[in-house]
Amino acid sequence: MLTRYNLPQNIRIDIPSDSMIVIRSSSEFDNRFKGYTDELSKIDFNKYDLAYIQGASPTGIEDFNVQWNVDTTPYELSINIKNNITTQYQIWSLAYLIAKRKNNDVVASVVYDNAIDR
Question: Where on the tree of life does the source sit, at the highest rank (predicted)?
Fold first, then answer.
């Protein structure tokens, strides 16, 4: 089971751009999201893990296309970001609750599709 987890706009934590992490405990969650925990919904880490990824687009973002493959181990997340031609630097982040299981690992790929190339 995958459920989108709501995040505040412009959230940034200390991980590299376009890298996926899986958070498995409330202590790890509190440590990673210091300064944001009051804005975030509580998670029952006995039932779920949290998959989180963030990035930065050098131009504005027109649309996200997110696709999951949960038939593989690890799970695969593909993100295609359609950029527009504005000069607006835009940060983004996505998070999903994943039903708890022994090896909840996720690999992610991010592609920035520039409007100028279309």
Answer: Bacteria
Q: Which residue has the tokens 């038939």?
A: 71
pLDDT band at residue 116 under the 50/70/90 scheme: low
d(CA 7, CA 4): 9
Domains of the chain: which residue ranges?
2-117
Task: Please report the sign of the dihedral spanned by the C-alpha atoms of residue 19, residue 95, residue 30, residue 43.
Answer: negative
Instruction: Please classify residue 118 by burial: count the beta carbons closer than 10 Å to its beta carbon, then call 0-12 exposed, 13-18 middle and 19+ buried.
Output: exposed
Dig out the tokens for 28 from the structure. Answer: 């790890």
Q: How many CB atoms lie within 10 A of CB 81?
A: 21
Output the pTM of the full model: 0.91
H/E stretch holding 28 reads helix 26-32
* DSSP calls for 59-94: S-EEEEEEEEE-SSSSEEEEEEEEE-S----EEEEE
Distance CA 108, CA 56 (A): 15
